[in-house]
Specification:
Elements: H1 2-22, E1 37-41, E2 44-47, E3 54-58, E4 63-66, H2 71-85, E5 91-93, H3 99-102, H4 105-108, E6 114-118, H5 121-132, E7 143-145, E8 148-153, E9 156-161, E10 173-176, E11 181-183, E12 189-190, H6 204-217, E13 223-225, E14 228-229, E15 236-237, H7 240-261, H8 266-272, H9 288-304
Parallel strand pairs: 4-5, 5-6, 6-7, 11-13, 12-14
Antiparallel strand pairs: 1-2, 2-3, 3-4, 8-9, 9-10, 10-11, 13-15
Helix pairs in contact: 6-7, 7-9, 8-9
The structure holds zinc ion (ZN).
Zinc ion binds near residues 96 and 98.
Length: about 300
């Protein structure tokens, strides 16, 4: 009887495993919004208000947040997390330094033991704040990492990866391993024009490599949270979406390279647009395709000098 019970439960577990790996749940299964807070899986969820998407984890032992948007929305996020957990954020992770991901650090991370980010983030955040005259408003990471970092948080393990300069020189990929949910920060602008911040060390060639490495590291079961997306496609995705972003960057680079070879100015290249990426035009950044072309043109011509 005992053996029979074991076999049937083992069969159930194996069956579930097969189901999870061969037929992942459709993204719509994770998209049910509860106000600004949307649970995704195993205590991990997302919060959208203003700026880069916040990721969160609530379990019996800790509350974790990834990114902090702006002070006002960070306060909303903090209050909502406290309603759901009776505690404030223990661990805050910054996916990178940009203001719409770190300006709320002082609010969301006020009680955090650790604020963790890539080694380059405090320096980049400081430079950005000095330019904007907002140095006094900054709260910086108090723990940084070079290539990887991990921490057990209750029954979850969080692992960070950095694969070199991409969206900035300080991007982190954040994996909630047991939930198998990944926060990509701004490494993916989901069907949307990117922000290519050359001043912060953006590198579109290595950005493409980074997306391929992440694609290979994760599986079809992994659910991804993206920093920004157009309103139709939304901020959740699957690993094939990482390759859509790679191909968008590749098309930008190809268009600029062809334009340079043909003796065209960056304005002329931008005027031609980018074929095959119509969805990226929905609710894109204000500077849209022209800004992306100009940035890649500057990147590629300054490399050639
Ligand atoms: Zn960014």
């Amino acid at each position: 009887m005992k053996r029979r019970t074991f076999l049937s439960s083992a069969g159930t577990v194996a069956g579930l495993g097969l189901l999870a790996s061969s037929t992942p749940l459709p993204l719509s299964a994770f998209a049910r919004t509860n106000g600004l807070f949307t649970p995704i899986r195993r205590g991990v969820g997302r919060f959208e208000a203003r700026g880069g998407t916040i990721g969160w984890l609530i379990n019996d032992d800790a509350v974790v947040a990834v990114d902090s948007q702006f002070p006002e929305s960070a306060a909303e996020c903090r209050d909502g997390l406290m309603e759901r957990s009776d505690r404030t954020v223990d661990l805050l992770i910054n996916s990178h330094h940009h203001g719409d991901h770190t300006a709320g650090n002082g609010v969301l991370g006020a009680d955090a033991d650790q604020i963790v980010a890539h080694d380059n983030v405090p320096m980049l955040q400081r430079m950005q704040a000095e330019r904007r005259g907002t140095l006094d408003d900054q709260t910086f990471a108090n723990e940084t990492f070079a290539e990887s970092w991990s921490k057990d948080v209750g029954d979850e393990t969080i692992r960070l990866h950095h694969y070199g300069p991409a969206h900035t020189a300080g991007d982190a990929i954040i994996h909630f391993e047991h939930a198998d949910v990944v926060h990509m920060g701004d490494l993916v602008f989901h069907y949307r024009h990117a922000y290519i911040d050359l001043g912060a060390g953006a590198d579109t060639a290595n950005w493409m490599v980074t997306l391929e490495r992440a694609h290979d590291l994760f599986t079809d079961n992994t659910v991804f949270i993206f920093g920004h997306a157009n309103p139709v496609n939304g901020i959740l995705g699957r690993r094939e979406d990482l390759l859509v972003m790679r191909d968008y960057l590749g098309a930008l680079r190809d268009a600029v390279e062809a334009g340079i070879d043909a003796g065209m100015s960056r304005e002329e290249v931008a005027a031609k647009g980018l074929e095959g990426f119509d969805a990226h035009m929905i609710g894109g950044n204000p500077d849209g395709i022209a800004g992306n072309i100009a940035a890649v043109h500057e990147e590629m011509t300054s490399v050639q000098e």
